[in-house]
Amino acid sequence: MRNWIYIFVLTLYGCGMPNTYYSTTDDYVVGLRWHDRGDYEKAAKYWDPLVQKEDCDAEYQVGTLYFLGRAKPQNNEKAITLWRKAANGNQQRAQWALGDLYYHKKEITFHGCKDCEIKQDLVAALFWYKLFEKSAKYEGEKKYITYILPLITADMNTNQIKAATEKANSWVPTPKDCGARNLW
Asked: Cβ of 161: how many Cβ atoms within 10 Å?
């Protein structure tokens, strides 16, 4: 009897807790769970229709599939286009990815790309990192931004830092804030 109660509670929790990693009704989350299991094809099947609906979380994830060549042909241009769209809508991980790509420090950044045709631009990198700092939701994201900000600002002069900070402070999501999910 206890096992049935346990199964019922877990089922109720999964079905009754939308906007969590355990949601059974959010196609983004279902795709995320397939992704975590290594089935990128199934994840893409859930995310592709969401990209068509301008879901910024799905845009970031499908961009990552293109970037890594998983379930999609490796295509940096498509990845960056999707990341830029998601980042402009205030998707935190897309902002992080663009910050890394503009910083060009493969030995210390998470996202690195030698064939992306993005030139190092410390002002653009700090701009994206500042936005990421504002929108970071999870502990790992917050640790990363705490790690990376002192490194990039050490490479910049005062005018560069000021320009990036002013741009970040006046930035507004376009066309609107996409409402990136907070799954925990």
From this structure: 16
